[in-house]
């Protein structure tokens, strides 16, 4: 096949059709699903949706919080209440120390010292330890993101077999 065969039937035009601006709004369904949990969240549904979108796209909690117009602590609490894991800044061992403080086996000063956490980190870990995620919250978020065809989730799932873990290197 020659170049002339490939170009056969093509024509050059001097004008383009204005097709407008393509818009995609994939937050509506997420905001709608978060509406039923709004009373239990530390921020409104719009801010919660912004936090979740930022978090699922790989942004830091602080960056997602700024985009939502809330404090980073509020964003971290929102993520925890909606069932996202890994929000607590403490190690599992430090959580054990925190539980000892909560059960009055340690003083707060001793617990903070033993965990090595800052006051803010300790406060967030205490929130995580004393508040369970909202029942159905994570499922609603996952459902909303999946129904919107969220490329971030499907991209990670599609690449799961290609990614290695640190244990693969041993």
Verbal overview:
The protein has ten helices and no strands. With 170 residues, the protein is mainly alpha-helical. α3 (45-56) packs antiparallel against α4 (61-68), α6 (92-102) packs antiparallel against α7 and α6 packs across α8. Among the domains are: 26-83 and 133-148, no CATH class; 89-131.
Structural key phrases:
mainly alpha, single chain, 10 helices, elongated
Q: Structural class, judged by helices and strands?
A: mainly alpha
Largest sheet: none
H/E element string? Answer: HHHHHHHHHH
State the total count of DSSP E strands.
0
Mean pLDDT: 81
Number of helices: 10
Low-confidence stretches: 23-28
How is this structure best summarized?
With 170 residues, the protein is mainly α. It has helices at 3-7, 28-35, 45-56, 61-68, 72-81, 92-102, 108-115, 119-130, 137-147, 151-159.
What's the helix and strand layout?
Blueprint: H1 3-7, H2 28-35, H3 45-56, H4 61-68, H5 72-81, H6 92-102, H7 108-115, H8 119-130, H9 137-147, H10 151-159
Helix pairs in contact: 2-3, 2-9, 3-4, 4-5, 5-8, 6-7, 6-8
